């Protein structure tokens, strides 16, 4: 169950990271409210997952999901650059997330 909560927390992190772009500096009320709710939910679920998972693993996976997801959505939604190096580093992050999961002992 902790891993499910952690994955959801990571996906919500993607949501709030992308949401930051839409808040336009927290000047737009609806995107700001949705972004803040996503932040609260993401951190809350991370906290619940960290009750049973090692904090280094939980935090690393949470950040990794958020970073890779935000980078992918940045490319798709905001037409950010796609370079071989950027893709390679995203793949390395995914491998790192899988490695943390595989070696966590949970």
UniProtKB/TrEMBL annotation:
Keyword check for Membrane, yes or no.
Answer: yes
**Record carries keyword Transcription:** no
Q: Which Pfam families match?
A: Multi_Drug_Res (PF00893)
UniProt keyword terms in alphabetical order: Cell membrane, Membrane, Transmembrane, Transmembrane helix, Transport
Q: Could you tell me where this protein is found in the cell?
A: Cell membrane
Question: Which chain regions cross the lipid bilayer?
Answer: 33-50, 57-79, 85-103
Q: Which domain of life is it from?
A: Bacteria
Q: How does it sit in the bilayer? A: Multi-pass membrane protein
InterPro entries in the record: EmrE-like, Small_drug/metabolite_transptr, Small_multidrug_res
Q: What NCBIfam families does its record include?
A: PRK11431.1 (NF008512)
Q: Which family does it belong to?
A: Belongs to the drug/metabolite transporter (DMT) superfamily. Small multidrug resistance (SMR) (TC 2.A.7.1) family.
Q: What is this protein called?
A: Molecular chaperone
